[in-house]
Batch of 2 targets.
Target 1
Amino acid sequence: MLARYLPCDVQLHRWGRVLFHFSTTCPKGLKAGAAIAALAAPMVLAGAPAQAAEIFLKTAEMVTPGTATIKGPGPSTPGYPTINVTAYDAPVIFTAYKGTSATGTAYTVVGFCVDIFHEISVGVNTPKTINLKYHTGLLGVDGDGHTLSAPQDQEIAGLITLGTQLYRLNSPDLANKLAGIQGAIWSIENPLYSVTGGTAAIKNYISSYIAMAPTLTGAVEVLYSDSGTTQAFGVVGVPEPGVWAMLIAGIGVIGARLRTARSRKALAAA
């Protein structure tokens, strides 16, 4: 006798923002609601959201990045800088700390660039020490200060959320997918510029994610440089001390219930 499994979609919310999300399958006896309750049980989160938080970025790395060529917008479009550059096309993996220095608990932050008008120096396939002070904020504008529309905000937030999920789940063909998401973010945020993936696979993913973006949702923060001289990055929340430890404990509860349910089904089948 085989156990029956149902889709199980689990999200951790705080202040209306999705901090963590994953999809799995649950035995029939463990509904999605029970899984969410199991995850949330050890997580009693209190307090109010800060309007802005200081973030210290210690190291930065791109893992197996692709490339994309960004061009535009042409001399007939005043107020927009002319760009013609081939850039690494991937999110940046930061080692970050709450505050203004590398003290306290370190966190891994997946940052998608939302600013084609500035630069940042990062390591490729190895972390590079950058020691930069950033702070959190909302999206709302591109890297040159031009206002974004509500649909642009929504689509970019959805893509950043999706990309972060793919990274955390180590999705197949991950490097190409993340390059496609980053290229799609640049394209949606900067419609006067062309963004062309460096390979056929990246081009296809960029097109696919642009088409998918209107169906996506998410809530993100943006990390802005205190100096205003380096790129801004969209992230799915910056974890607070203890949140991820509680999250791991909650996932452990779900895992234990799944294992118990499967063991019972196996015994029943025997």
Note: Residues 54-237 form one domain.
Target 2
Amino acid sequence: MNAAIRLRVGILGVGSIGRTLAAALDAKRIDADLVAIADQDEQRAESVAAALTTRPRVVSLHELVQRADLVVEAASQNALLDFVPKAFAAGRDMLIMSVGGLLGHEDWFRQASEKGCRIYVPSGAIAGLDGIKSASMGYLQSAVLTSRKPIAALRGTKYVVDNNVPLDTFHEETVIFEGTAEEAARAFPTTSNVAASLRLAVDRTVPVCVRVVAVPGEARMCMRFAYRESSGVCPWMWRTSPRKIIRALPSWRLSRRSLRWRILRGRCG
């Protein structure tokens, strides 16, 4: 009998992204079942579970990876240090939302290959990430991602606090950070997923520069990606503005033979 087996999904982290994914699964917008959730704030997790029709169980991280076929991290970069090893130990595929936490952990990708596990990364705000990856194989010299952020979005961020950046004195667009994607992931751990996804997509020999621009009077974030080819020209530039809540939701189908995956890329606006 070739009846499809529904995929069991577990979510770590029930902040805004985790709740959005849980609601999508609960509403059957994704062909899979939400079987469990986990969060360091158990009371918050219980509240989220109670609001869902399917009433997923609130469990520990250890039990989460045991119950699910695919485990979703929607917590934080720091959470990956415990999440990834436990997922590997259980032989689970992973969908990582805190992409910046993957940088500097090439060993995780080697382990995934050795154990037959998959690490999935959503395309986020960058359209055509697969195309960028293909183009980087021998054609790109460099890539630059410019993130234009409202003053309100920068308040309280790690980099701004650690460096005492005087945001209230800015009256025009001001570059407050320029560095590698790895440095950006450390400086802005909660808002560097696009930079991290770009770093993971392009060839390791291609330098990726990230600029963060503080924009007084701006109401939403906007990202601009540019690259330089070996010919010295820069033919394409893409502008995107990511939604406050990630709209790139995955759709899965698990049959008896294989797991087929695709990412539904949300339009930015």
Note: The chain has a mean pLDDT of 81.
